[in-house]
UniProtKB/TrEMBL annotation:
This is glutathione transferase. The keyword Secreted does not apply. One of its GO terms (molecular function) is glutathione binding. InterPro entries: Glutathione-S-Trfase_C-like, Glutathione-S-Trfase_C_sf, Glutathione_S-Trfase, Glutathione_S-Trfase_N, GST_C, Thioredoxin-like_sf. Its EC number is 2.5.1.18. Keywords: Transferase. The lineage of its organism: Bacteria, Pseudomonadati, Pseudomonadota, Gammaproteobacteria, Oceanospirillales.
Length: 219
């Protein structure tokens, strides 16, 4: 299918950025935003739930096709379009990539984004302040995840081997946000390989077009 894809969701979303990274890496024409079918789509509206039964983003629209869940979207884009492969051809390496996409979209997202980053972006404390107790409670989970990723990068430049894969597309937006927080140096003090990895990913042309300052005022 040659028509552009449309990514439904706000660009500041880490998972939206993951899909966007895959499109950029493979030079897939795409549009992006909280619109569908030429109409504005309010998050958690009936129209949104009609596209995603759990009211999440991103949603991929490609012609008459609709697809949800970031790992599935990224695998589809890699298979359906020409361009650099984002999944290894070898069976075991591909299974490792699938494993890491699941780990990242599940456990890592919960630790880094849901429990930690969102407290800074959308603070829930009195008067819109950051809940320091919530941050402190979440911090051990963040450290555990960063240590796990540091170990995974012991021998390779990317999470699964020497090439950028879907796993890196999912990891990069979360880590980019985390590394940009005030005081993030303390979190990354014991993970030098991970720090180098973040800079390596940020230096990719695709990332320079995706990992931009978020516009939190968008839909």
């Amino acid at each position: 299918m040659t028509q552009p894809v449309h990514i439904v969701g706000p660009q500041f979303s880490t998972f939206v950025r993951s899909v966007q990274l895959c499109c950029e890496e493979k030079s897939i024409p795409y549009t992006l935003g909280t619109e569908a079918g030429g109409r504005s789509l309010a998050i958690h509206s009936p129209e949104h739930y009609a596209l995603h039964p759990f009211g999440k983003v991103p949603i991929l629209l490609h012609g008459e096709r609709r697809l949800i869940e970031t790992p599935s979207i990224c695998r589809y884009l890699d298979a359906a379009f020409d361009g650099p492969a984002l999944q290894p051809a070898e069976t075991w390496a591909r299974a490792q990539t699938d494993q890491w996409t699941g780990i990242l979209a599940g456990y890592v997202d919960q630790a880094l984004v849901r429990r930690y980053l969102l407290e800074f972006v959308f603070p829930k404390g009195e008067g819109g302040t950051v809940r320091e107790d919530a941050v402190a409670d979440a911090r051990p989970g963040v450290v555990k995840v960063l240590t796990l990723l540091e170990e995974q990068l012991a021998e390779e430049e990317y999470l699964v081997g020497g090439d950028f894969t879907i796993a890196d597309a999912i990891a990069a937006p979360m880590l980019d946000y985390l590394a940009g927080l005030p005081g993030a140096e303390d979190l990354f003090a014991e993970t030098p390989r991970l720090v180098a990895y973040i800079e390596r990913v940020r230096g990719r042309p695709a990332a320079s077009r995706v990992l931009v300052a978020p516009d939190l005022g968008r839909g």
